[in-house]
Structures
1.
Amino acid sequence: MTAPPALDAVVIGRNEGARLIACLESMRDDVRRMIYVDSGSEDGSVEAARALGAEVVELDPARPFTAARARNAGLARLDGTTDFVQLVDGDCALRRGWIAAASRYLRDNPQTAVVCGRRRERHPEASLYNRLCDAEWDTPIGPARACGGDALMRLGALRAVGGYRDDLIAGEEPELCVRLRQAGWVVYRLDHEMTWHDAAMTRFPQWWRRAWRAGHAFAEGAALHGAPPERHWVTETRRALIWGLVLPVAVLLGAVIWPGALVLLLIYPAQVLRLAARKRISRAGWEQALFSVLGKFAEAFGVVDYWQKRLRGQHGRIIEYK
């Protein structure tokens, strides 16, 4: 009889508090080892993780913190006996039955390197911004181009492509998935509950910084893998620049010559209406449409921020919204 795969977990976090405790408690009966990688927490996270039986890795603050660097540090603690590794962000908790379903899928599908499932927002009722996150997690089932921070992965496949890129401050999982798919591996999303996520976003500036970070990720991803046939995040980068920078600047410059050009700004409410119509003009549809359009401005700033730093030979630091 074939032995079950050896399965460990790598959790990353920074000042997650009670969320980290819930994360570790949700998995400790389903995995062999829990590796917690901490990025300079000051809220007792390290002590709490040790108390729950996790092996703790504390990153050296002399180097910039990134989620990719933290995940690589956790993966480096795993040895040749590990078959599968569950990657989890410290603000998430695994759902009951996920580990069994995901590990069974990887075992039965040897060409699949990454399997992910349904991520849900724990408190969508707490704020508009949490509801927007919950809608964002509703992604198609089946073969996928990328996963998020929570996924069960085949450790051998991760190591074969060199793991995560330590220097990426955002978008590290999609970039990893590009390289895995290029190497012939499959990324797959199951129709199975995977994690509860706690965005804890209650203020507009938090949402804005998160959208800014997305724009930065789009720009850097396109710079790395934007060439055909991949065209990684080229469309997203282009949309951010057109809607968030080129159109408004062109209209405002045109208004200097002819003030009536300002009427062209009505294209933005028209776009909100068009996007909301796809959702049958529901409350959720209006919210998602409005913030999708507003988000293009923040994303454009993120794109510009990336290229500005790159042209100056600088490297951006992690963009946190909590």
2.
Amino acid sequence: MNKKELISAVADRTSLSKKDVESAFGAIFDTIKDVLSRREKISIKGFGTFSVKDRKAKTGRHPRTGKTLQIPARTVPVFKAGSQLKDVVAGAKKSKRKAATKKKAATKKKAATKKKAATKKKATTKKKGRKK
């Protein structure tokens, strides 16, 4: 999903116009950028935390030539997902797995029932044969 699709989805869920949602998103993203540029942290309960992290300078290799390169130190933005967001994402995976597991179990149960019915049918056929 890209920014336009996100704006459309939020506009559909709310009574706001796409233009209003777009300006609100713009303000939110600009504020996040400003706060992170001041090296401050933003915590949104249940969603996650935006922060800034310093990376040390390190030595790397050019993949094509194999030459050693010096990678400079830099500051990068970091996002750490909150527990509720993690649970929602994990729940989506779990529900897909549960659905697949339930389907497999139902298939196995049907097969076992058919096998059981076939076994009973054979047993009654044998019993009938003995009586004659």
